[in-house]
Amino acid sequence: MQVLVLNSGSSSIKYQLLDPDSGAVAASGLVSRIGEQVGSDTSTVEHHSAGRTLEHHGAVSDHAAGLRIVFDLFARSGQDLVGAGLTAVGHRVVHGGEVFYRPTLIDDDVVRSIEELSALAPLHNPANVTGIRSARALLPDVPQVAVFDTAFFHGLPDAAKTYAIDAKVAAAHGIRRYGFHGTSHEYVSGQAARLLGRDPEEVNQIVFHLGNGASASAIRGGRAVDTSMGLTPLEGLVMGTRSGDIDPGIIPHLARTAGLDIDAIDDLLNRNSGIKGLSGVNDFRELFRLIDSGDRAAQLAYDVYVHRLRRYLGAYLVELGRVDAITFTAGVGENNVRVRADALAGLERFGISVDPERNAAKDAGARYISTDNAAVAVLVVPTNEELAIARAAARLVK
């Protein structure tokens, strides 16, 4: 079987063609800077297949044009998608609201419903819909499946998902904790249980998905019972450019004292806050270069970042009561030795102890980084959202 997985962003398309059973990737690529009038010498598409990289140079006007270029690059590399007998196309969709909480076969009504949910995810769902429409036009006979970032957290306990605002207002406007990165949290927690040699239903764990966007989850027996992101991906941990948790009173305060309108405040909190807002950079390699050179703003940004991680860790330790594993994943979680060490430093009395040599080892696979005698396993598990989406799509169309 072959499943094409598409992740359509506001100005990009990431894609993989893979076998959902084996996980083998036949091709992958990225269409970037969609809609920008870039020069002809700027690469906007990179396609990787069979050890070769093919590129397209020039502007890509929209998602439909980007997918047509992708299909052409597949054909040039000897893989005709139209005639390849694809099992399905799996689409990552960020927000499913209350409507979608499992993989869903896409038809016109589903597309309209996803579009209507754009009020809850204005930066993401419109781009997801554009990618879906373009793929359906190019592959009209292939089943298309939407897999939702919020689905894993749909069944959060009422106490965890409910905000303490007027209940009628919340119900009228769909306000609740939805959570995000759910595909990653579900996949990684399953892989962590496998690494422990136990059934997921037996395992309590905390998962930190740490990338430019970052989220934490508390998982009891394979089911999420809490997560750090909320109505939108803005809440929770400090992120690359997002603030994470703030006092809601900051919003009207900025409106009154700084004269900022709601769009300017939204831009501030989503694109110019977090690590970037505190230090001027949002790449951890650059952040550590600044810290090592004595930059105090960079050190403060890092300290705030780690403080927030530890706050959520403590909350979830109490919420779960018994924790079998703490798992790190995504770009920062999988690769940043210092973040993992500092997030869990000094917690030996709670049965949490990181082995410095294991933590620093150059290993791309799933692994233990805790000491042999630690009561709580500390793990690093690479995420693979594309594989999770492909498997969900394949199961559905079967």
Blueprint of the fold:
Layout: E1 3-8, E2 13-18, E3 25-31, E4 43-49, E5 52-57, H1 63-76, E6 88-93, E7 104-105, H2 108-116, H3 125-138, E8 144-148, H4 158-161, H5 167-173, H6 182-196, E9 204-210, E10 214-220, E11 223-227, H7 250-257, H8 262-271, H9 274-279, H10 284-292, H11 296-320, E12 325-329, H12 330-335, H13 337-343, H14 356-360, E13 367-368, E14 377-380, H15 385-397
Parallel strand pairs: 1-6, 6-8, 9-12, 12-14
Antiparallel strand pairs: 1-2, 2-3, 3-4, 4-5, 7-8, 9-10, 10-11, 13-14
Task: Please write the string of helix (H) and strand (E) elements.
Answer: EEEEEHEEHHEHHHEEEHHHHHEHHHEEH
Unreliable stretches covering 5 or more consecutive residues: none
Query: Helical residue percent?
Result: 25-40%
Query: Overall 3D geometry?
Result: globular
Tell me, rounded to a whole number, the average pLDDT.
94
Rg calc:
21 Å
Tell me about the largest β-sheet. 8 strands, mixed
How many separate helices? Answer: 15
Q: Roughly how many Å apart are the termini?
A: 11 Å
Beta fraction of the residues?
15-25%
Find the count of extended strands (DSSP E, 2+ residues): 14
Strand order of the largest sheet: 5-4-3-2-1-6-8-7
Question: What structural class should be given to the helix and strand makeup?
Answer: alpha/beta
